[in-house]
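Figure 2 data, in text form.
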Amino acid sequence: MKDQPALERQWRLLHALEARRLGVSLYELAAEAGVSQRTIFRDLQLMRQIGMPVQSGTGANGRKHWKINPDHPLLRLGFNPTEAASLCLGFRLMEPFAGTYLWDGAQTALKKIRSCLSEDALRYIGTFGQAFYPTRFGSGDYSKKGEILDALMLGIEERRYTALTYQSQQATEPATRDVYPYALAFHKGSLYLIAWAAEHETFRNYKVDRVTDAEVLELRFTRDPKFDVQRHLTGSFGIYHGAGEPQLVRIRFTSEAARYVKEKYWHDSQLLHDQQDGNLIAEFHLTDFHELISWILSFRDQAEVLEPASLRQQIAETIQSMNQVYATQPPAVNANKTPSNRTPK
């Protein structure tokens, strides 16, 4: 433990103090960290100097100890130091929702926490964040969707019909339809509205990025008491919801891809079977293959669908279409044309 980075040691030190409300001695803290008492004392002095809620005291038996200061403003908010630090760092994950009510609420909470900490303490917490940086690759931008999200949440909470103006990926122009909004799901950086589509008499998922307007109507609907979001998406390999009974899907991954597949959680139904040759057989029970096809193709020749035959055929047809695209030279591009900064729809 002697080569443990100072920030990690100090983070663990805070955890140790939070776990012992009556206090803990310098000797015990040093023994747990595997460093000298002088090192722990310097850590504690640093945290106290920058305004973290750490204090020393003397017990009834005259023994000196260290503990979290229960009278610190942060504790009155109901947060201990590591909870506050985690929330301060975690707020960066809310950046895709900048400008929405979700972002505003997060910022209000963040201001309350920051008001209880000194600038030095905030800078100290910020050093933890240098080791963690979430990218926004492929995430949606909802900074201009605040009113739409407010309307959708109102429709969900008050169970009111909502007129949704929506342009699907295949449509050439938006269309308005009445839906019964049930829930919002967050998947791969994008928000989806799960709603009962009256015209289709089934549940459908609507990508919020493609919603151009949402008007909450006065008429209310009766929510299906049996509806459960998790159960609704049980047969989905992500967000696309299919009808009918789940089908068994078996995919063989080469040894090169096997480790990556085993490192992650993909679906509630997944069963992963190691093979003697190093390959991996993955099994899923799914009602929709839309997202699954893209996932399989991302492995190139390191993944092969074994069953069902219909999925194997879809993969083969997709590969054939891609071969046709790349069989000829691309058309000439005008190099003098000013590049567009517009995001493709």
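Caption note: The two ends are 52 Å apart (CA to CA).
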